[in-house]
Design brief:
Helix content: 55-70%
Distance between the termini: 74 Å
Number of helices: 26
Radius of gyration: 24 Å
Structural class: mainly alpha
Order of helices and strands: HHHHHHHHHHHHHHHHHHHHHHHHHH
Number of strands: 0
Low-confidence stretches: 1-32
Shape: globular
Mean pLDDT: 92
Length: 539
């Protein structure tokens, strides 16, 4: 079949600069003037005013601006009631952030999105291309409710690929296809096949459309893995400028900055992200988690405490990113500073009676993990068992939700707690074996996009236990292996310094001391590891 070109109306033949489009009615942007969202041109067979509003709505979609996109879609429909593609975009936006699938895909959401596609067909689709777009998204809902999510997502990927192949001039089809290819990665694939395939689609488009927000955004996601993160630095540094009005665009560069250990850049990205979001908005929670993590790596404990204070100003939302941040930020502050007693006493905030923690067992597991770690380090066996039992219940809840990734993550957390408890109980060899199993399992998967990193990497915990056994050379190897996955992580570098010194490896000790001092060159706290590094540097 001969590839078909895109029917582009004369009035929209040139790409529209979204910065020139007035904000949608009712938009609660912190920007008083036209939002700066990059350049998007998604031709639809609707009148010129509707086309302009549709491009704005697509720009919001490409930066996951769910609050604003609703108003923009309403503007499309007000401008042209027969613009069926407005309903298609509503269905797409109802599916929320695809990198968090299947979490937001409740039966209610799926029903509403499917109904929106029916409305698209009823309102009118004036070309085969538009019908192809609607049918492609429809594959996500075509099977019965019992079809596994993975099969649905793969069907959508293949359907969007067919649209992109049929309309090779339609870069929006290629961009959406690349997005779902990246989303459908295998978390155990250490060759990153899907991610690199998505990047290979997006990179040429980025050269052609350097101001497209979706291309920059999805390149960051595609490169959000330690061995390939450096390839995403260009997109990371450009995306925040391309879509300066979008909170998510300000935040996303910090995914890459975290992967390469550029902590100050991460702090600045997330400060900008929080400032771009409305006061109290849940988007701020996600930014504060990344910001707190970065501050703690630089030994800026006051900065991390500030993130907790800012988090209290965020309105609780039944949203996974909010729930995860609410559990993670206080846990990080206790664990990164080795305040085991604080970790063991951490309470859920908001309290369970006022927040639907049951919707997010994997977020509540963060609290259970931190409390279990604290109890293990204090050799409080009953408290350890209580948190292990709790983690078991949360794992079972994730299994009931058919989310194997989180089942595995919670099992790894349980292994780490169990391993540390064995160590404090004097069962060193058994502890090391347990932690090594946990570390190998953790290495076999990738972190979820909602988190900047694990509270305590399993292999880092293993390194410290080996140090306790006097196996400094082995410990150094474990710390340095961890640093390949979590570069410039404070406690890992500090562990490597201690291991190298105990092993009599002066060169390595000096190397890690210099690295620690560089990471924490603007520390606002007196951590004992820094005193050791300074003493070594002065020899």
């Amino acid at each position: 079949m001969k590839p078909k070109s895109i029917p582009i109306a004369a009035s929209v033949a040139a790409a529209l600069t979204i910065a020139a489009i007035p904000p949608a009615a009712g938009q609660h942007s912190t920007h008083e003037h036209s939002p700066q969202l990059g350049k998007v041109n998604f031709p639809v067979d609707c009148n010129p005013q509707a086309q302009q509003a549709f491009n704005l709505a697509m720009a919001y979609y490409h930066s996951f601006a769910w609050r604003q996109i609703r108003d923009a879609i309403d503007q499309v429909q007000k401008a042209d009631a027969s613009c069926g593609m407005a309903h298609w975009l509503r269905a797409l936006s109802l599916l929320d952030n695809p990198f968090t699938w299947p979490i937001p895909l409740t039966p209610k959401t799926m029903s509403e999105a499917s109904a929106a596609l029916d409305q698209a067909r009823q309102a009118g689709l004036k070309s085969q291309r538009e019908r192809d777009y609607v049918d492609a998204l429809g594959t996500f809902f075509a099977a019965g409710a019992d079809q596994p999510h993975r099969a649905r997502a793969k069907a959508l990927e293949e359907a969007l690929e067919r649209v992109a192949q049929r309309y090779p001039d339609d870069k929006e089809a290629a961009i959406l296809h690349a997005l779902v290819v990246s989303v459908n990665f295998d978390p155990t694939d250490q060759q990153f096949r899907n991610q690199l395939r998505a990047a290979s689609i997006l990179e040429p488009i980025f050269k052609e459309q350097p101001e497209h927000p979706g291309v920059a955004h999805y390149l960051i996601h595609s490169y959000d893995y330690p061995p390939i993160a450096h390839h995403g630095l260009d997109a990371a540094r450009r995306y925040a400028r391309i879509a300066a009005s979008a909170p998510h665009a300000q935040h996303m560069p910090s995914h890459i900055f975290t992967r390469v250990g550029a902590w100050q850049d991460s702090v600045e990205s997330n400060l900008a992200s929080a400032a771009a979001a409305p006061p109290g908005a849940f988007e701020r929670a996600h930014a504060y988690d990344y910001m707190a993590y970065a501050h703690l790596q630089m030994a800026q404990d006051d900065g991390a405490q500030k993130a907790i204070a800012l988090m209290r100003e965020v309105k609780p939302a039944e949203n996974f990113a909010y729930a995860f941040a609410a559990a993670a930020i206080p846990a990080r502050l206790a664990l990164e500073r080795e305040r085991w007693d604080e970790a063991a006493r951490l309470e859920l905030s908001p309290p369970a009676e006022s927040f639907a923690w049951k919707r997010f067992p994997q977020a509540e597991a963060i609290n259970a993990f931190a409390r279990g770690l604290g109890a293990a380090m204090l050799n409080d066996a009953p408290a350890v068992q209580a948190q292990l039992d709790r983690l078991g219940r949360l794992r079972d809840a994730m299994a009931a939700m058919k989310q194997p990734y989180w089942v595995e993550q919670i099992e790894i957390q349980s292994e780490v707690v169990r391993g540390l408890a064995l160590a404090t109980a004097g069962k060193g060899d058994e502890a090391v074996a347990t932690l090594r199993r946990a570390a190998d399992r953790e290495d076999a998967t990738q972190k979820h996009v909602v988190t900047p990193g694990p509270l305590v990497p399993a292999r880092e915990a293993l390194g410290y236990r080996l140090l306790e056994q006097g196996k400094a050379a082995e410990a150094l190897q474990e710390f340095e292996t961890t640093l390949k996955r979590e570069p410039n992580r404070f406690r890992t570098v500090a562990g490597a310094l201690q291991a190298a010194e105990q092993a009599g490896n002066r060169a390595k000790a000096a190397e890690h001391a210099a690295r620690l001092l560089q990471i924490a060159s603007k520390a606002d706290s007196e951590r004992p590891q820094l005193a050791k590094a300074k003493a070594l540097a002065q020899r």
